[in-house]
Amino acid sequence: MEIQVLVKPAPETEGRIAPTADGSRLDPAGIKWVLAGYDESAVEQALLLRERSPGTIVHALSWGPAPRSEEILRAGLALGCDRATWVEAPPGFEPTGIDAARALAAVLADRPAELVLLGQQSGDSEDGLQPLALAALLGRPGFGAVSRLTWDAAGRQFSFLRSLDHGAEEWTVPAPVVVGLRQADQDPRTAKLPMILKSRKMPVDRVASATVAAALDGHPGSPPLRFSLPAPRSGAKLIEYASPEEAAQKLLKRLREEAKVLP
Amino acid sequence: MPDFSLSPDLESLQDLARKFARTEMMPRAAECDRRGIFPEEIYRKAFDLGLMNLNVPAEYGGSGLGAFQQCLIVEELGYGCAGMTTSIIANCLALEPILLGGTEAQKREVLEPFCRSYHLASFGLTEPGGGSDAGSLATRARRDGEGYVLSGEKCFITNAPHASLFTVFATLDPELRHKGISAFYVPREAEGVVPGKDEEKMGHRASSTGTVRFEQVRVPAAHRLGAEGEGFPLAMRTLDMTRTPIGALATGIAQCALDHAARYSRERHSFGKPIGEHQAIQMKLAMMTSQVRAARLLTWQAATLIDAGKNATLESSVAKCFASDAAMRVSDEAIQIFGGYGYMKDYPVEKLLRDAKLTQIYEGSNEIQRIVIARELLRRYAP
Amino acid sequence: MSRSVLLVAERSGDHLARPSREAAGLARRLADGGTVHGLLLGGDLDGPAAELARCGVDSVLRAEDPELLPLRALPWATVVREAAARPAAGVILLADTIFGREVAGALAALWDASVATGAIEVRPAEGDRIVVRRPVLGGRAFQELLLDGPRILLTVRPGAFPAPEPAATAAPVAPFPVAPIPAPLRAGRSAGFTGDPAPAAGPDLGSARIVVSGGRGLRSAGEFRLIEDLARELGAAVGASRAVTDAGWRPASDQVGQTGRRVTPELYVAVGISGAIQHLAGMIGSRVIVAINSDPGAPIFKSADYGIVGDLFAIVPAITAELRRERGA
Fold first, then answer.
1. C203 falls in which pLDDT band (50, 70, 90)?
2. Total of domains in chain C
3. Which of A89, A242, B115, C219 could serve as a FRET partner for B212 with CA atoms 20 to 30 Å apart?
């Protein structure tokens, strides 16, 4: 089987973040880019599938600007991916959302992989559009929020658990399929030092931006206007209550309606 | 590296060590320090990731890193926990005599098993009767048929209670002083090898340090490193290789102290503003920053010379000496910035001071380093 | 300027899903005098359709077809695209549920729109443009995007917008004919629901979206169960203060603080934690902090967004129970 696993750089979660001078977007200066969390899980699951199904090839693919995309592909190689392809972003394109799906679909259309695997959403823009946008563009069935992904080589089909807001369903889908991964079967592995050294010398294939430019042209965008950090705190708003039940209801209501942090 | 920035290749190694330090070492550091726990599972993980036998060439299964690469890794580990780092890199010290003085057969015999699965080795030079005065060591090696019999005691030996192999320096004839010393490697299971108790230490409490006694231990001639009488220069060449990473470890401690102090200076308020806005604190932070940066660059320079195959005796002594003194100064000032909290074990900085102290003492005390520095310096001014 | 809005609604059991009801309220506001059509897909839609008809929409369309169940994003998106063409909709609005986002992903490609997901604020801008605000980077920052053009696709975060009160009169309900769905898009079969959804992030503290931490106020290791129960209901990771890990109630790797992990979740719930600087250093970067503590003078309240002063042994089980009740368990 061939797996195309899509990887994306995201800012390190502990690093400092700040807007650009014009306030429109995240300032990339000084950002440490790491493999986005869900994509890290996707790589882990791809490697697990390869371990369980010998002969599987895991091919890492990333769209974006140098050097961060190439570095993230090397991180994938260090984890154990067999090959890597960097799809160069045309100048001016920030590698987010639907544009990424269009660029990657243009490359993936010619690659008859049984599985296109990626994180269910990226760690920075978090738009979560890519898995199904890719599926639509490639004309293959697609599912987001997948866990427990297995491959039945004889039946040439995948089985997985697919999460929805109210529960989870078991699915069986014949290849090829596009999967947005919610959770790998185990915590993502850490690249070992000898593999890191080896990955630095492995080739990273390059697809020139001209190859995907046509796929990106003429589509509506959603330009960023403002990037802002939460306001500093000035002391907790205390919840008044007559009973614990009331305290619970009031808290949850405010977390939903005011803080917008709970569904 | 004219602009002193790291290449992506080097950054990837640094990232690995940083991630390991932050996610594996730091969460356990305070607990291990407080209770004197030797966290073997962390050391096993370090081994699994290739962070243990950094200096062993890849042909024997090691990581095969140069001095500069080692320093980048050791600084990050030192940031996480100096004690754990000392135990993790103890193999580099103990195996270096084999790398420098061993035959091909000896290297294959010892190094390959060490790189295949988790093992610890200890470097046995220091004795109760003398540390810096290595020429006076009292552990005796007596010729006996085809081999030798070792007897004597080594002390302050890192990982000794857990080691499966010791590299040991012993004298065939104390009258010959330095020239009587030979080097051997001795497996833990050899009869008469008696590791002593784990010492209670001021710092580096996640590391294990102990004595080891050799009671009439039979060692085959095949386990001698180099010729008879070549032990002392071998020990010195070994320390030449490992001195610079100690500078890196100390730099890691200093950087950690600086990060804690700077963050605290933004969070803690006094007289109506963050303490970082008081000049008294700013003066300290500026001094600390300068110390950390100088320590790092001196370490990098020594490592670069070593990797280029050039003599780095002066530079590595300067790096080790300066960085360990910097670690002391910076962690001391960090405690001062934390005030009363800094003196409490609930806060991380007092540990850094206790850990820093050892870096001025071990692997050649700073007094020895200064003698080396002065000797090298004056040699260049010979009339 | 008025817009024509197509609301793609989801059901929950025999009802309209609450997030879709909230989206309906926003749809009416965005339409600004224009029309709002509500679209339901699947089968057996009487209950949800009747509720949607009273959510301020101008009409309810029922697309009923066996191919639309079980839930698959591509067949849904195909039908939604059809519905958005007759009459032409300028905005397609969905609730940002797991499945809503899948449908939005497919639509983003098929309908070629200016798109944003997970909006928590939406405001009209000049012309027929729309500005949305959405959390990014795990809630550490906010982004505002400009949506523009003849086709705008938007998902809104559940809970972010008020649900409208049921209207006195019901809008008309009409069937929406479903054209045959291409076979590749409806490949695969489902064995149906098997249990709870998988947690979105692993057990790792560092990457969790929500963290619930317990402190000395819990009094014993056994009482930490209260924290674990609440964390399970919230899909959260469990953290602890240094007092707790030192006492051995939780492993040292769970410690949040200066000498432990630094976490930056969207929501951090500190239970029975006084809020020493040592602990604050590890969680102050969280987007929203809730403190539950019996001591009104505890410093944690100075650094929290919401506080409940009271007995955690009563409050925490009440929150857990409320979450269970809402989920219908």
1. very low
2. 2
3. B115
